[in-house]
Amino acid sequence: MQIADSHNDVFYKFKTYENIKNYLINVEKQGVVSLFCAYFSYNNQKDVSVRKIINRFEFIRNISDIAIPTIENAWFLTPKNIDAIIEAHPFCVTLSHNVNTYLCGGAKDDGHFTEWGKKVVKELENANIIIDTAHMNRKSFYEFVDMTTKPIFNSHTAFDTFCKHPRNLTDKQIELIVQSKGYIGLALFPEFWSTDNSLTSQEVIYAIKWFLEKFGENTLGWGTDFNGIAYYPEDIKDYSGLSIVGDKLLQSGVSIDCVKNFMSNNLLKLVKP
Questions:
Q1: Rounded to whole angstroms, how far apart are CA atoms 112 and 93?
Q2: Calpha distance 171→18 (Å, rounded)
Q3: Would you kindly state where each structural domain of the chain is located, as residue ranges?
Q4: C-alpha to C-alpha distance for 96 and 16, rounded to whole angstroms
């Protein structure tokens, strides 16, 4: 079964072009047909280079048909470099990473959208670059909802109903994303799922079925956070584990079309509208 993933930290984990290439070749063999590859940097990291970002984007586009470049934490955007980033055309951009940036409030902080952040949203959306609401705090999320007319996108998260975590989405946030015909990528970071940081595929399947029954089948997909997390679910270590989840969903009575939507189609319809 085809797999599409809206968040993988391949650039963070693999530092050399050769290792990135080998990884992309390997995951394609595991059934991955679309992989969002996030370029990540910490706030005020000194070695962030727009040229380096552009070079890495060009590299993965040239070697892989499945790789889609994105930016996680665009804290470094300024009026001087935003045009170069727009020209590099990441598919989507997060504006923070847990703490406040010069753009908006982070999930573990208390900030709002700045005036510069609002301008960045407008410029990126005018260039058909999606704003990724992952890592925004809820104040900034609702501010963003009020300023956008686009489908609302969250590349990697989980559900506040099952675990109270500032990175997770409340039911109200989910409803707004569904109403906008947006997308939610389900992350597999155990911290998003339980206070003791444990997670199994059965718990993931239960949450997926809960979502499908409550919110429908056209919004949810994978946003694994593979290569960006320190530990994994007990029985999901790579994309072959996601295939097993798909098979178990079918065995539990979820329709084939619904499973296909979750596994890949909901994300693919944004990639190739």
A1: 17
A2: 42
A3: 3-271
A4: 25
* H-helix or E-strand spanning residue 84: helix 82-88
Q: Superfamily for 3-271?
A: Metal-dependent hydrolases (3.20.20.140)
User: What's the rounded Cα separation, in Å, for the pair 193 and 230?
Assistant: 14
- pLDDT digits 0-9 by tens, 99-146: 999 999 999 999 999 999 999 999 999 999 999 999 999 999 999 999
For residue 68, the cross-strand partners are 36
Query: What's the predicted TM-score (pTM) here?
Result: 0.98
CA distance 202 to 16: 35
Instruction: Copy the structure tokens of residue 79.
Output: 């009026």
Angle between helices 201-215 and 171-179 (to 10 degrees): 60
The C-alpha atoms of residue 205 and residue 20 are separated, in whole angstroms, by 30
Residue 209 CA to residue 236 CA, distance in Å, equals: 18
Chain segment 155-213, per-residue pLDDT in tens: 999 999 999 999 999 999 999 999 999 999 999 999 999 999 899 999 999 999 999 99
Residue 10: partners with Cβ closer than 8 Å, 6 or more residues away: 20, 23, 24, 35, 37, 38, 67, 227
Bridge partners, 226 (sequence order): 8
Please give the Cα distance from 29 to 113 (Å, whole number). Answer: 41
DSSP annotation string for 226-249 = BTS-S---TT--SHHHHHHHHHHH
